[in-house]
Amino acid sequence: MKTVLLLFLLVAEVWSKSHGSSWCEPGCDCQGELKFTICSPGVFTHLPRSVPSSTELLDVSDNLITLIPCRSLSSVRKLRVLLLQSNNISVVEDGAFSQLEFLQRLDLSWNRITSLSEGFSLGLGSLRELQLAHNGIQTLDSKSFFHLDGLQRLNLTGNPVHSVQLRTFASMSTLRQLHLGNNQLTSLDNGMFSMLRSLEVLNLKGNHISNTELGVFKPLTSLALLNLAHNQLTTIRFKTFLSLHTYSTHILLEGNPWNCDCDLQRVFRKLRSVQRLFLDDYYNLSCQAPPVLENYRLMDVDTELCIAETVTVLIITATVVITVLGALVMAERKRKKKKRGNTGRSRETCRTTKQLFIRKRNISREI
Fold first, then answer.
1. Mind listing the pLDDT tens digit for each residue in 270-305?
2. Could you tell me if 189 and 162 lie in one domain?
3. Based on the domain organization, do 109 and 197 belong to the same domain?
4. pLDDT of 58-97, one tens digit each?
5. Whole-Å CA distances, 215 to 173, 194, 245
């Protein structure tokens, strides 16, 4: 009997380790040894209620969850990874993650979140990675990430973000990667990236950016990669990138509608001479304007641009010089003509005066 009991306990223990404990939420696989709780896709419309308190990774991705209530995960305070991507989440209540003081990775990508309140980030001081890609977020303000002072990677790719207020990222002094690709930004204003001294990767690919203020990149003293490809830049200013005081920064600029004039050629020539800046895709840059150069590569026409402009300037200069010389010659001729006229009149006056004197003298003799 004792042998049978021991055998039953042994089988129960093995079953528990391999198939999860009996108190795990139906539809979830709770792997006690690995401290993982994996919930089947397409089953859940709300967060599972029966999750082992020892769980460190909770995966509820690819389900039908629409709401994350306040403190709904207070029973799993040891959680380090929370995967909620590919649900229908549109509301994250204030303080929803406030009990997760050890959480390091939160994935909310591919949901329907449209805004972030200050309460969203409560309790997430230990968070290192936040995934918010492919949601419906339109604006970012200074309260959106207020409590995320330990964050290192923020992904906002594929949102309709069109406005980023000043000091939005001011609390993120440790942020190393910021992904804002495929949004709807039109300009980069001074102060947008203030306090991001640790930022190494700034991805702005696929926006509608046509204007960048001169000092917008100045705070980024650690930047290694700046991706501005596939925007609406027609020209750039040398000082915009010269303000990057980094040891080495790689810049991507292809896919922009460049206006290929001599000024643009000069800017790129200067940029390529700065040893700490690397234009990795320079040979792929193509012109959209003027029409005669459309689809030409900038590298194929950059020399001719300034030659043509130089020739034009020389022709204009020569024309001006010839005009001025002609005016001087005409003025000199008029001066000489006038001088000759004055000399003739003087001689005539002298002859008249002499004749009057002789006549007067003869009259005096006769008297």
1. 999 999 999 999 999 999 999 999 999 998 886 666
2. no
3. no
4. 999 999 999 999 988 999 999 999 999 999 999 999 999 9
5. 18, 10, 11
